[in-house]
Amino acid sequence: MKNKEDKPGQAILTVKNLNAFYRERGTKGGSRRQILYDISFSMQEGEILGLVGESGSGKSTLVKTLLGIHKDYHGEILHYSSRPQMVFQDPYGSLNPSRKINWILEEPLRLAGGFSKAERQEKVMQMLHKVGLEEKLAERYPRQLSGGQRQRVGIAAALMLKPRLLIADEPISALDVTIQSQILNLLLTLHEEMGLSILFISHDLRVIYQMCERILILNDGAICEEGPCSEVIFSPVTDYTKALLRAAGLEPL
Predict the structure, then answer these.
(1) Which phi and psi (to 5°) does residue 63 adopt?
(2) Contact of 43 with 11, CB cutoff 8 Å
(3) Shortest CA distance to 152 belongs to which of 120, 175, 135, 128?
(4) What is the pLDDT of residues 89-121, one digit of tens each?
(5) Cα Rg, the chain, nearest whole Å
(6) Predicted local confidence at residue 91, as pLDDT
(7) What is the reported pLDDT for 5?
């Protein structure tokens, strides 16, 4: 699915010695518990970078810190573009159930300002076409759409302000198997057409291999292995990566 000959350009995200913490509830003075340990990596413009780790490995904290949601950290996060946008795991939970699709897609443009009602409507219709949805769906509520359609709306909402970096957090894990490949193909098409960089998070190493040029393996809040997908998957170094591969049915050579 991916073009392994792609040559990404300049850096779009650089993370240096990132350490993140949470305040422990119910402890005297609110002691801090460290979640991320000296995370450092760089992501290139036009790259699809995979992030893999088990539940509790620190993936969610890393994403929240990159998005500016989690603020208890030290280290450097350097964005070389506008703030990244997010595609969530649960397409239903991430969409306002009381609002029609038209309103949901217009909202980023309203918040940004500078667009007339007619301009917002035109951009909404253009984006619906771009993600493979019919214009008539703009008048429906999220509950009236299928899971695949809702995830397309989620992707459309993330792209309304034309970000250069997209963070896709397990974007197909809540979908039927028959729909998963359609969403992956859509993301690859948008990647090519819009020049998107994508930080692609998944527990499925088969999907990571299909989608990504490079991969980061996160274990207990630290990067334990990284490199080109082919090297990490076919010649893993750490026992943790080997265990992940065996769990995915990808026995290392």
Answers:
(1) -65, -45
(2) yes
(3) 128
(4) 887 888 999 999 999 999 999 999 999 999 999
(5) 19
(6) 79
(7) 45
Structure confidence at residue 28 (pLDDT): 63
Confidence (pLDDT) at 172: 94
What sign results for the dihedral spanned by CA atoms 129, 208, 52, 45?
negative
Q: Taking the mean position of all CA atoms in its chain, how far away is CA 215?
A: 13
CA gap 86, 208 in Å, rounded? 18
pLDDT at res. 174: 86
Structure tokens at 168: 């896709």
| Crossing angle of helices 117-130 and 101-112, rounded to 10° | 120
Find how far residue 240's CA is from the centre of its chain: 23
**219 strand-pairing partners:** 222
Domain 1-84+164-253 in CATH 3.40.50.2300: no
**SS3 per-residue string spanning 52-107:** ECCCCCCHHHHHHHHCCCCCCEEEEEEECCCCCEEECCCCCCCCCCCCCHHHHHHH
For residues 1 and 209, the answer to whether their CB atoms sit within 8 Å is no
Quote the CA–CA distance of 41 and 83 in Å, as a whole number. 17
> What pLDDT is stored for residue 94 in this prediction?
86
* Alpha helices, DSSP H, located in the chain: 59-66, 101-112, 117-130, 147-159, 177-194, 205-211, 229-234, 239-247
Domain boundaries, given as residue ranges, for the chain? 1-84+164-253, 99-162
Three-state SS at 179:
helix
* pLDDT < 50 regions, the chain: 4-7
Return all residues near 34 (Cβ < 8 A) that are at least 6 apart.
19, 20, 21, 221
